[in-house]
Amino acid sequence: MTAQSKPAGYHHGDLRTALVGAATELIESGESFSLRAVARKVGVSAAAPYRHFKDREQLESAIAASGFEVLLSQLKLHGSTGDSSPDIPGLAVVYVRYALDHPAVFRLMFGQGCADANDDRVIAAKNLQAFLETAVGQAFPNAKDEALPTALWSLAHGLAFLHLDGKLPSLTSSEVDRRVRQAFGAVLTGGQSEYAAKQARRLD
After folding, report:
1. What is the tens place of the pLDDT at every residue in 153-195?
2. DSSP secondary structure code for residue 5 in this structure
3. Cα distance between residue 98 and residue 115, in whole Å
């Protein structure tokens, strides 16, 4: 087969990345998702995906890992202001916004456990957790254990799913952002006047 006669998908250069991208689009659009459908979307033979993924579950794991990586990159972008005290409610806003912008992938990221510590999804999730723990540690240096990072991640995660599942009223994006900041402010500002004032300025 000459280069000119190869299926279009082979021109991606990185077939694995192309397959993950196509599968992500199918999931988010609500279309039928299978290795065959992904191959058709990329423009390769039905057998081509099996060079990289033994089954649908392995491809789903790759999609979830990619989702964690994208979310982490967005969080890092928000947290790269050089501020020695990270904007924790702001990071929560990014977290919830990602969930609402990518609901199907977000559910997939957290919808399945995995016992394999070497699984890409597990590794990517641990990288996200490490980032959040570091950010909270910088914002609250007197927090000596994992309780506060866990609590704040749980709050952001809960807010994300309360919105996704329609348990909180639908609002505009800016109103959702404000709600997230207010929820974090309510938890974090008790007796911390300086922190409370800083968050109030961010809400204005």
Report:
1. 999 999 999 999 999 987 899 999 999 999 999 888 764 545 5
2. G
3. 26
Backbone dihedral region for residue 36 (phi beyond 0: left; psi -120 to 50: alpha; all else: beta): alpha
Query: Coil, helix or strand for 26?
Result: helix
Is the distance from CB of 184 to CB of 89 less than 8 angstroms? Answer: yes
- Tens digit of each residue's pLDDT (9 = 90 or more) over 56-92: 888 999 999 999 999 999 999 987 655 567 899 999 9
Long-range Cβ pairs for the range 128-133 (8 Å, 24+): 128/68, 128/71, 128/72, 128/75, 129/153, 131/72, 131/75, 131/76, 131/79, 132/75, 132/91
Burial 84-106 (b: 16+ CB within 10 A, else e): eebbbbbbbbbbbbbbeebbbbb
Q: How far is Cα 95 from Cα 75, in angstroms, rounded to an integer?
A: 7
**Distance from chain centroid for Cα 88:** 16
Provide the pLDDT for residue 2: 36
**Residue 66: per-residue pLDDT:** 95
pTM for the model: 0.82
DSSP symbol at 165: T
Cα(142)–Cα(196) distance, integer angstroms: 17
Q: What is the predicted pLDDT for the residue at 108?
A: 93
106 vs 9: CA distance, rounded Å: 26
51 residue type, one letter: R
